[in-house]
Structures are given as C-alpha cells and as structure tokens.
Amino acid sequence: MVCLSLALAGSLQTSMASAGQSAEAANKLLADALAVDESEVTLRQSYSAKMGKVLTATKVARDLQIEKKIRAIIKFELASQIPLAS
Description:
By secondary structure, this protein is an all-alpha fold. The chain has one domain. It has three helices and no strands. It has helices at 2-16, 23-52, 57-81. The longest helix is centred in the middle third of the chain and has 30 residues, at 23-52. It is elongated.
C-alpha cells in the first residue's frame, strides 16, 4: 500500500514541478490518485478478510487501526513534499 502512495507521490512531484499544468495533466493525476485510493481499499479489505480467518475480530481491527496510523504519518510526510496544483 505504501508503495502505491510512493509511486503516486513521485508522479505528482514530477508533474507538479513544471511551471504550468494543463487540465489534461491535472485530470490524469486526479485519476491516478483515485485509482491508488481504490487499490488501497481493495487491498485492506482483502487483508482483513484473510486475517479474520485466523485472528479474532479485535486483533484484526487493532491491526487495521495501526496500519491506518502508519499510513497517515507517511501521507503527511509525502504531502509536505508535493506542491499544490496551480
């Protein structure tokens, strides 16, 4: 999941570094970002279903909470490096 976010961040940094941004490029970046979000949700659902077969619901929930906190920290760090669209 983190790899997807890092790949998207690299793409964003490269694309946003240029002085101007076309609407087409912005639409592509938006589509890429949404696709990454969807992939992460699908992956989390898959993992939680697999973990639910061998762990209690409480442990699965705790694991997902920890994962979410780690992801938030990483996304915060990435957000500080990516310029806003102009």
